[in-house]
Amino acid sequence: MPSPLRILLVAGARPNFMKIAPLIRIIQTRIGEGAPLAYRLVHTGQHYDDRMSAVFFNELGIPAPDLNLAVGSGSHARQTADIMTKFEVVCQQEKPDWVVVVGDVNSTMACSLVCAKMEIQIAHVEAGLRSFDRTMPEEINRLVTDALADLLLTPSTDASENLRREGIPESKVEFVGNVMIDALVANLEQARASTLPHRLGLRTAEFAYVTLHRPANVDDASRLAMIMAELRRLSDRLPVIFPMHPRTRRMCAESGVAIEANAALKIVEPIGYHDSLCLTENARLVLTDSGGLQEESTYFRTPCLTLRPNTERPVTVTLGSNKLTSVERLATDIDDLLARDARFGSIPPLWDGHTAERILDSMLAHA
Ligand code: UD1
Question: Which of 52, 75, 232, 274 has the fewest CB atoms found within 10 Å of its own CB?
Fold first, then answer.
């Protein structure tokens, strides 16, 4: 019997969980078929509220993490350093052959740094995305992680192109598609059974689904107040559902920006994965600054406005149903979208529900 290939999977924050779930599923399937693989799941604890973490484990059927580093919130330096210190000990004990990191959160970068120093192979899922905006913490995380990774698994050809331009050797880069779409496809039935629209009293498909949490939008009080005013205006035209991220709620409280929810502007606690997919599929329009929602809207061909000056996911604009907007242009862009078809755009190549298989095959080929 060969000794099994030891894979350590890292997840830390909400957008990581839907990327890890399909990987765990395919690894478990292959182990069931007798493949010499062993895996452990590490949760860094970057997100810890039930609504930001546990609900996703339950809905996505992710087994409880083997290890939870429980780092919690903090400044970037503190959070990154805490993850690194604790993850180093995990690597010393577990001695993995591969560490798989996903996305672009602080946990992704912190664990990559540890592995690079310990000469442990890193596979980065969702490699190569670039907003070319270094004021975004995620852009720094992406640049550092990709500079250190041994295998860079990209969701789109533009991402592979970015890596090529940065001089990453071709042999390390593989275009595998979007693993988040694997989770979406696997959860579609449960998403369609969601009772959230009914519970929210939505009698029509004519509603807007809003999520906003990026520091650039919510950390500045006057900008946050302008955004909330635009949402009130939007809610005069169609019901707005706004599950509020804890960061946004905290910033409203700290900067005295009123959260004036009413029957048309429904500001609720963060919602789960199935409910979110259900709203995204059925909304007349999505307004967001999340990376994941740009992609999920594209898959459902739901019109999406992204409240950012740039996106690291350009296929959602060139092929998909996404458009960048600003607070100043928002009212006009909403008018334009509401005058268009309720669905448009196409699904990018390899966003087909089979990305996790390609990722595992690529890791085995590089082992
Ligand atoms: C992080 C990611 C971001 C991702 C987002 C999705 C980084 C740099 N950012 O941003 O890319 O889009 O997750 O949610 O990694 N908080 C809670 N409960 C929690 C987690 C956070 O109340 O379970 C609050 C705390 O007040 C915390 C704040 O949210 O200070 C920000 O959390 P943090 O993990 O630093 O970044 P996010 O804004 O969530």
Answer: 75
**pLDDT at residue 260, as a whole number:** 83
Cβ atoms within 10 A of the Cβ of 165, count?
A: 10
Is 213 labeled as catalytic in the residue annotation?
Answer: yes
Where b means 16+ CB within 10 Å and e means fewer, 300-309 reads: bbbbbbbbbe
Is the CB of residue 16 below 6 angstroms from any atom belonging to ligand 1? Answer: no
Q: What is the pLDDT of residues 258-285, one digit of tens each?
A: 888 888 999 999 999 999 999 999 999 9
Q: What whole-number distance in Å separates Cα of residue 41 and Cα of residue 20?
A: 9
pLDDT above 80 for 47: yes
CB 212 within 8 A of CB 246: no
Task: Identify whether the C-beta of residue 66 lies closer than 8 Å to the C-beta of residue 40.
Answer: yes
Q: Over the stretch 59-103, which tens digit does the pLDDT of each residue have?
A: 999 999 999 999 999 999 999 999 999 999 999 999 999 999 999
Measured by CA distance, the residue closest to atom 21 of ligand 1 is 47
What are the tens digits of pLDDT across the range 287-330? 999 999 999 999 999 999 999 999 999 999 999 999 999 999 99
| pTM score above 0.90 | yes
Any ligand 1 atom below 6 A from CB of 73? yes
Distance between CA atoms of 339 and 225, rounded to whole angstroms? Answer: 27
- Domains delineated in the chain: 5-177+351-366 (3.40.50.2000), 189-338 (3.40.50.2000)
Taking alpha carbons only, the member of 106, 101, 102, 111 closest to residue 79 is: 106
Which helix H or strand E contains 123, and what residues bound it?
strand 121-125
Q: Tell me 64's DSSP state.
A: P
Q: What would the DSSP string read from start to end of 1-28?
A: -PPPEEEEEEE-SHHHHHHHHHHHHHHH
Contact (Cβ atoms closer than 8 angstroms) between residue 175 and residue 156: yes
Indicate whether residue 13 lines ligand 1 (CB < 6 A).
yes
Ligand 1 atom nearest 107 alpha carbon: 15
